[in-house]
């Protein structure tokens, strides 16, 4: 089985350059014909997985739609209604199930979503600020003179100068190997059926992942669950300071919460001290399992962040099959870095935008968010949530094995707060071309 790389938009399968400079542009569609014209102008610029490695301008662009965006560009409403329920309803409508409560409630979001006007999104990336800005100019030019399309939001993202996300962790070290993408998996890299991430291929349930409507619309497409998450960096630093009196100090506490040292070195391979040499070796940094080597979480706590979002083989033999709940994660930071050593916020907005690629948003993203991040039952942790990104309204403590007694951390704060989110559809290049030829859509800008 080989994936059709020329049809799949590149962000699904290909890694980003390091460093990288990106942007999210979110648009409202008030005129279906204008949207189709803009999309036709953009099509030559959309990057496929085949062309990702060596673009002539060292920059990339990909296109997504909300459910309402598909309707407004002309996809028949009855077809859109048959798409996965989370996508059709929109992420804001799923807030209770996802644990987006309190400060994370959608009433507090500052990013557009499908329920308040976001219909079309462009994801851009360059190997330099100049390359990104040149691609941005192309995106703006494609929409110029089309009054039925309005820019709602522009957010610059990338990797901070520290080469780490705002909490200080090296990011993006692990991802599944997708069957048919080419190359060979690295040690410790799970081989996952392509249908878990791309429609039109067999998934881990032995079925062909699909969607309603003509095959040209959904084949080689996928869904992305986007989350804009504000990081309370000062609160995280204060928590480490206040609980850093144990052996290993603050860095040990940070490692036990994440499951990796902040260098990216996994506790599974170096539980007592950081070892950046392991991170530098792509053949070593993910070469670990849990079931035989660490079933009780003495090295990597069972409730730690990386063990929750990717249990690897720890759930083998249980009713939960981790293979059917995998996500392909793309994380990009936004906002300035809080100065080193500062324990108070400076009023700047900073955080991370997660783009979680999955062919079945309910079975993959929503399951992981609700059952593994915000609930600890699956690993015997009761209602304890993820110590880094979990909700705090049910419990606010975290514990892990230590000597001479188990360590319990109390008073975890809301280190992260959701500030936006949406389920979007990322079509194939043929689907995008097909959309430019659709009749109908919402009509003229004064339509209701």
Automatic annotation (TrEMBL):
* An example Gene Ontology molecular-function term: peroxidase activity
SUPFAM superfamilies to which the protein is assigned, alphabetical: Dimeric alpha+beta barrel
Domain of life from the UniProt record: Bacteria
Keyword Iron carried by entry: yes
Required co-factor(s) are: heme b
UniProt entry keywords in alphabetical sequence: Iron, Metal-binding, Oxidoreductase, Peroxidase
Q: Which Pfam families match?
A: DyP_N
According to the entry, every stretch annotated as the DyP dimeric alpha+beta barrel domain falls at: 7-136
Which PANTHER family does this UniProt record tie to the protein? BLR4509 PROTEIN (PTHR30521:SF5), DEFERROCHELATASE/PEROXIDASE (PTHR30521)
Kindly provide the name given to this protein in its UniProt entry. Answer: Dyp-type peroxidase
Q: Which organism is it from?
A: Sphingobium olei
Q: What is the lineage of its organism?
A: Bacteria, Pseudomonadati, Pseudomonadota, Alphaproteobacteria, Sphingomonadales
């Amino acid at each position: 089985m080989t994936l059709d790389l020329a049809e799949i938009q590149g962000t699904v399968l290909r890694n980003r350059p390091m460093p990288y400079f990106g942007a999210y542009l979110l648009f409202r569609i008030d005129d279906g014909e204008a949207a189709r014209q803009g999309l036709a102008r953009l099509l030559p610029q959309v990057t496929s997985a085949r062309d990702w490695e060596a673009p002539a301008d060292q920059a990339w662009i990909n296109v997504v739609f909300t459910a309402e965006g598909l309707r407004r560009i002309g996809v028949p409403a009855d077809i859109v209604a048959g798409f996965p329920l989370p996508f059709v309803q929109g992420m804001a409508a799923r807030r209770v199930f996802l644990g987006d409560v309190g400060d994370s409630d959608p009433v507090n979001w500052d990013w557009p979503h499908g329920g308040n006007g976001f219909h079309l999104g462009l994801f851009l990336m360059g190997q330099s600020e100049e390359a990104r800005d040149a691609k941005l100019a192309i995106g703006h030019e494609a929409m110029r003179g089309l009054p039925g399309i309005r820019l709602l939001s522009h957010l610059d993202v990338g990797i901070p100068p520290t080469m780490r996300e705002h909490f200080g962790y090296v990011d993006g070290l692990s991802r599944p190997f997708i069957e048919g993408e080419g190359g060979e998996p690295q040690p410790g890299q799970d081989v996952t059926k392509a249908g878990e991430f791309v429609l039109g291929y067999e998934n881990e349930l032995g079925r062909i992942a699909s969607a309603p409507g003509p095959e040209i619309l959904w084949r080689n497409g996928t869904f992305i669950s986007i989350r804009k998450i504000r990081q309370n960096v000062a609160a995280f630093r204060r928590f480490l300071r206040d609980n850093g009196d144990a052996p290993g100090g603050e860095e040990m506490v940070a490692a036990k919460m994440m499951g990796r040292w902040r260098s990216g070195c996994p506790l599974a391979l170096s539980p007592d001290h950081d070892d950046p040499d392991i991170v530098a070796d792509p053949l070593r940094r993910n070469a670990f399992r849990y079931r035989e080597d660490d079933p009780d979480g003495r090295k990597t706590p069972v409730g730690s962040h990386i063990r929750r979002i990717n249990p690897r083989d720890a759930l083998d033999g249980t009713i939960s099959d981790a293979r059917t709940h995998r996500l392909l994660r793309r994380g990009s930071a936004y906002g300035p870095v809080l100065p080193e050593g500062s324990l108070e916020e400076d009023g700047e907005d900073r955080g991370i935008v997660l783009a979680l690629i999955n062919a079945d948003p309910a079975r993959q993203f929503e399951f992981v968010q609700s059952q593994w991040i915000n609930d600890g039952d699956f690993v015997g942790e009761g209602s304890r949530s993820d110590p880094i990104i979990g909700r705090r309204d049910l419990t606010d403590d975290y514990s892990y094995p230590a000597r001479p007694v188990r360590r319990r951390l109390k008073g975890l704060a809301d280190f992260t707060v959701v500030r936006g989110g949406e389920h979007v559809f990322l079509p194939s290049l043929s689907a995008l071309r097909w959309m430019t030829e659709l009749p109908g859509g919402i009509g003229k800008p004064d339509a209701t």
